[in-house]
């Protein structure tokens, strides 16, 4: 199936939870999904025979400019039917909440922890959402564009060069 | 050893205990086998057949208890820094540290935006030898180890310290 057909299928099934289809020359057609609906959309994409998206190739957090909403991008692939779809969920900067797909795709477990660690996106329903790269006592989420590095970490100076 | 010269047979050598200890220590720079980044690849290359660090008595040990030299080979992240410090503290005296490559020396390419990188391992452990390079070639590491040998030979571990 093409991305357009999948988008039509999804918006017929989920109506207002599917926001839009973004098409551009520089990236794959992307379906924008309401952040709270990601879990059920992924369930549907995986379990429906005609779609059969059995593989989550990648899950990534994203911050465009340090002001607008954060987003999470999902790249799905069906190894059986060999078609692709890209999902995107926008979420508020301060109280970011996206529903977790870790119980559907095992891949998402660590990827969601990474997005939490570096972007501070909370994944509701994740079995063990804790930092994966940085230490537990780290302050802030460094890949956010408005992140300001601390001066010290456990007594070690983090030099700032302008 | 002027007065004792030529008093014994030729198979008996006279020296000071300090010199003997320094000679034996400098001839067995057992380094702690751990690497943090790409510098570790050069360190492995230096230890392998082509450069063969064991010519100089330097061989890798897998435990800090058995190691004399810690070669900090690579980027010291803040997360790793706490571990590096602990490993250094676990080594037995006398112990030495070689800071290998730009990252361990000063943060290297992470100098400006590396919120997660320690800007120089000398902030947490005392460094004896700095080896520049990104990464340094095995020859540079060997030169660093030879400089460390020179440093060891000039030390006075047993002699009374002058006030």
Write the layout of secondary structure elements.
The complex is a heterodimer of chains A (162) and B (163).
Chain A (H helix, E strand, L loop, with lengths): L2 H12 L3 E5 L7 E4 L4 H10 L7 E9 L6 E9 L4 E9 L5 E3 L8 H12 L2 E3 L27 E2 L2 E2 L5
Chain B lengths: L16 H10 L4 E2 L6 H9 L12 E2 L7 E5 L4 H13 L5 E5 H6 L22 E3 L6 H16 L10
Parallel strand pairs in B: 1-2, 1-3, 3-4, 4-5
According to CATH, the homologous superfamily of chain A is: NADH:ubiquinone oxidoreductase Nqo5 subunit
- Return the average pLDDT of chain A rounded to an integer: 91
Largest sheet of chain B, order of strands side by side?
Answer: 2-1-3-4-5
Over the alpha carbons, how many angstroms does the gyration radius of chain B reach? Answer: 18 Å
Let me know the largest β-sheet of chain B.
Answer: 5 strands, parallel
Give the ordered list of helices and strands of chain A.
HEEHEEEEHEEE
Order of helices and strands of chain B: HEHEEHEHEH
Compute the gyration radius of chain A: what is it?
17 Å
Structural notes for this entry:
- The complex is a heterodimer of chains A (162) and B (163).
- Chain A is built from three helices and nine strands.
- Chain A has one domain: 2-Layer Sandwich (Beta Polymerase, domain 2), CATH 3.30.460.
- Chain A is of the alpha/beta class and 162 residues long.
- The model of chain A has no long low-confidence stretch (mean pLDDT 91).
- A five-stranded mixed sheet of chain A has the order 1-2-5-4-3. Chain A has a two-stranded parallel sheet with strand order 6-7.
- Chain B is of the alpha/beta class.
- A five-stranded parallel sheet of chain B has the order 2-1-3-4-5.
- In chain B, strand 1, helix 2 and strand 2 (60-61) form a beta-alpha-beta unit.
- The longest helix of chain B is centred in the last third of the chain and has 16 residues, at 138-153.
- The model of chain B has no long low-confidence stretch (mean pLDDT 90).
- The chains are: A alpha/beta (162), B alpha/beta (163).
- Chain A binds chain B through residues 134-135, 142, 147, 149, 153-154, 156-159, 161, and chain B through 78-79, 81-82, 107, 111-112, 115-116, 118-119, 123-124.
